[in-house]
């Protein structure tokens, strides 16, 4: 299993994260347990900002809350000078509970409800990324009613096919997100926006997908958006100043993944944007990025306790743990791959190939296929790395299994990000029928 951030192996062969042995964390907080490396999260946030600071260029880095959203993570983003990208009332509420400046929050999403838009306007969010024609009229009506105005971006589907899983590819023409570039929907949207003085169009947005390892898709998207900038500014007298290239930078889950380091890829994104805009004679815009996964994924490790084994001679050995698709549904959703280790015997060489199963009543409840491990025994502590993004945020109560706790570790100290859910918590909103 690859180690990230402050993770290291102690002399006794035990994994430690943030200078805390994982057995101590498991004993204190129970399992399954999400463990987050605070110093690593902060370093990832800073890595996105350094290329812009060195080049003295205007920028905004908005942490995409969908990857992992808690009050504590929003507090960290705030302290690191980040913006936030939210996509729901719940994410916005969480950000505000963290004391986040609403003017440094942008709201995204393809089907924002009237309730969510009213909440965003009332809260004073700094930017709304408008996704469709319905939203133009709905947002304008809400702003007119409240006698307010608001900066917006138009989300563009630039027709760029990101080399990623089809379920996390979002920039192609056939997508539920954004105005289609090829059919001229952007120009139609601009004409609609200009009918409403409450809407201040300041730029364009695109997001071509997720888990992307190189800059080529962004290069094409930047060129197509720069071309639209040139056309719209000359034909519609617009003063556009913001380009949002979204997020989607990939991370290493297994040795098959070969991501580009954040600082290098960010510098390349700056370069392709400069090239695209200079080719149309347009000044460099305020460049906005929305990373989520690449900030928190590798900073997260999930700890489990091993339970039962099932050996099928000449077929497969299953090792079951006390979690599963309820705390990490990504393998079940789109075949995501992970690395695992016996967390208290990191020095031992693998002696068997096993598949790590969850405890849910689903054949698809698997966490890792064909993991190479030392002999896994009941009571062993198993660690799965790179589980910081889209694990807790996608967790469920299937089979009425409570969601795990999440803990933040740093320099020998641990703080709860999220307390462990109880069975009482799950029943709290249930209604008892009258006899």
CATH fourth-tier homologous superfamily of the largest domain = Alanine racemase
Query: What fraction of residues sit in β-strands?
Result: 15-25%
Helix content: 25-40%
Report the CATH C-level class of the largest domain.
Answer: Alpha Beta
Structural class, from secondary structure content?
alpha/beta
* Radius of gyration over C-alpha positions, nearest whole angstrom: 23 Å
Described by the principal axes of the CA atoms, the overall outline is globular
Report the span from N to C terminus: 55 Å
Q: Biggest β-sheet, characterized? A: 9 strands, mixed
Number of strands: 21
What would you say the CATH architecture of the largest domain is?
Answer: Alpha-Beta Barrel
CATH topology of the largest domain: the name is: TIM Barrel
Characterise this structure.
With 435 residues, the protein is an alpha/beta fold. The protein has 12 helices and 21 strands. β11, α8 and β12 form a beta-alpha-beta unit. The longest helix is centred in the middle third of the chain and has 21 residues, at 216-236.
Question: How would you concisely characterize the structure shown here?
Answer:
InterPro entries: Ala_racemase/Decarboxylase_C, DAP_deCOOHase_LysA, De-COase2_C, De-COase2_CS, De-COase2_N, Orn/DAP/Arg_de-COase, PLP-binding_barrel. This protein is an alpha/beta fold and 435 residues long.
